[in-house]
Specification:
With 309 residues, the chain is mainly β. It has helices at 129-154, 159-167, and strands at residues 27-31, 39-41, 45-49, 56-57, 68-73, 76-81, 88-90, 93-95, 97-99, 105-108, 111-117, 204-213, 216-224, 229-230, 235-244, 250-252, 257-258, 264-265, 269-275, 282-289, 292-299.
């Protein structure tokens, strides 16, 4: 697959009703099929397409003028197709309006993106006119009640009423004195604050793309783990060949082959090429990090039904 050169431009939203991108981002878009830095933003309505008016301009093949839009709604972020010529796909499924979650794969023409939800920013909250009116009514009601209570408390009372009120006051009995020679009581233990659970990082060595041509396998993988620079000794990738036997069954054609792992920076993709001594009909690729299975992919994808997870 040929990878077109990344050409895009971000426009500041000046129209009424649109937010602008800021450093306190609400979501992030990763580019899977080209080495482009991730894009972060918090626009309430974010246009994607070929037209210059789009916030994210994409000039790759298959992209319409105003292809799709990312919208903020009460239940989260939604991706909506704007009647484009080639449509929009999320996680390999065609959609017209889809709520997005972290890890969703978006395809717009030849562009492949990955969506990630970030923490809410600490900016100022905007209130609707209805909310403001409700707050004013509640504040006025509370103020009126305080005025009535204060007026009642300031009214003069007769001496008989004051004596009667005083006679009904019950005094608490004094605490008994400690016995001679007795040790003073120990103070109650201070409350113990609950321990804060540790924050676990999501570790993942994900297979982005597989391409095979007979005896050659091309693997594109992305790293998203805790360390900034990966230790190649902690990463392992294997490729298992498969072939069709005389009975027409697809079976394993050999033991998995370990792939050489180069120096690798976190949150980046690597292209790895493996050459075999013979031609095969398919491959199954597994990725490991610190000895734990992270991802499994196959070409053709139907091979996944033949291997254990």
């Amino acid at each position: 697959m040929s990878e077109s050169r990344a050409v895009y431009r971000i426009h500041r939203a000046c129209a009424r009703g649109n937010s602008v991108l800021s450093s306190a981002a609400m979501y992030r878009l990763w580019f899977d099929n080209r080495p482009t830095p991730p894009l972060t933003g918090q626009a309430d309505r974010f246009l994607l397409g070929r037209d210059p008016v789009c916030h994210l301009r994409l000039l790759e093949p298959g992209v319409s003028g105003q292809h799709a839009v990312i919208e903020r709604r009460p239940d989260g972020w939604h991706l909506r197709d704007l009647a484009s010529a080639t449509g929009v796909r999320v996680n390999d499924q065609p959609v017209t309006d889809q709520r997005l979650a972290t890890g969703d794969r978006i395809e717009i023409g030849a562009v492949r993106l990955r969506f990630e939800v970030l923490h809410e920013s600490g900016g100022r909250r905007r209130f609707s006119p209805l909310q403001c009116a409700a707050a004013i009514i509640i504040a006025a009601t509370l103020l009126g009640q305080l005025i009535v209570v204060g007026w009642v408390m300031l009214q003069p009372r007769s001496r008989d009423m004051r004596v009667s009120a005083r006679s009904h006051v019950e005094l608490a009995p004094p605490a008994p004195a400690p016995a001679p020679g007795a040790a003073p009581a120990a103070p109650p233990p201070a409350p113990v604050a609950p321990a804060t659970p540790p924050v676990l990082l999501t570790r993942k060595i994900r297979v982005v793309e597989l391409q095979s041509a007979g005896d050659t396998l091309r693997i594109v993988a992305r790293a998203q783990v805790g360390e900034r620079v990966l230790d190649p000794k902690l990463v392992a990738i294997t490729a298992e060949p498969f072939a069709v036997d005389a009975a027409g069954r697809t079976v394993s054609a050999g033991a998995p082959v370990a792939v050489d792992i180069p120096a690798w920076e976190n949150f980046s993709a690597k292209t790895l090429t493996v050459r075999f001594s013979a031609r095969y009909d398919g491959f199954v690729v597994r990725t490991y990090y610190r000895g734990e299975l992270q991802d499994i992919a196959a070409t053709p994808p139907a091979l996944l039904a033949l291997v254990p997870r």
